[in-house]
Amino acid sequence: MYTSCLTDEEILMNFYADAFDSDEMVARYERNQIYDENNKLTPWSVANACPDLKVIMIEAPYFTNDKANYVKGTNVTCLHKGGDDVLDNWYFENGFHVGQGTTSNEYGAAGRNIDIIFGFDGTHTVVSKIDENDVQGYISKVTLGVDNEG
After folding, report:
1. DSSP structure string for 37-52
2. I need a labelling partner for 91 at 20 to 30 A (CA). Which of 23, 32, 77, 141 fits?
3. Chain center to CA of 53
4. Which of 130, 138, 143, 126 is closest to 73 using CA atoms?
């Protein structure tokens, strides 16, 4: 029990110190080195440090605030260092994103569930380009979930 709140750094230091032995302590420390050479947290430093994680970056004129608010001009990048060089590392441009579900409206600034739309969804039409490591082409679907067939 603490008499004051711990900072993020103090919580992390406690996590290291609470390890069972020195090997686990070093492993915890090394696993948490997600910053770049300038000690900055970037999408690329996280992707490099966590190769099994998909890092999704969304660039848009503004972030949606409702499930009926379709934001045009949305670009999405996926970085996945441990994934397939072509299929798991891509960039889409000129799409839409929209709030998904009504409960997301209650999240406020904390975040929300979103739908990302590229192509034709029956209501909105947009041409999306995927740049797969300098191999440009047009595709119909990208799945960000787990492949349960393999």
Report:
1. TTS---HHHHHHH-TT
2. 32
3. 8
4. 126
Q: Alpha carbon 78 to chain centroid distance?
A: 7
Q: Are the C-beta atoms of residues 23 and 9 closer than 8 Å to each other?
A: no
Cα dihedral sign, 35-51-130-69: negative
Backbone angles phi, psi at 72, to 5 degrees: -80, 155
Two structure tokens written together for 42: 């970037």
DSSP tag of 30 = H
Domain boundaries in the chain?
Answer: 8-41, 55-137
Q: Is 12 exposed, middle or buried (0-12, 13-18, 19+ CB in 10 A)?
A: middle
Q: Please state, in angstroms and as integers, the Cα–Cα distance from residue 38 to each residue in 29, 45, 67, 128, following that order.
A: 18, 10, 39, 34
pLDDT in tens, 12-65: 888 889 999 999 999 988 888 888 899 898 999 999 998 999 999 999 999 887
For 93-111, what is each residue's pLDDT tens digit?
A: 888 888 876 666 666 655 6
Helix, strand, coil shares of the chain as percentages rounded to 5? 25, 25, 50
pLDDT at 21: 94
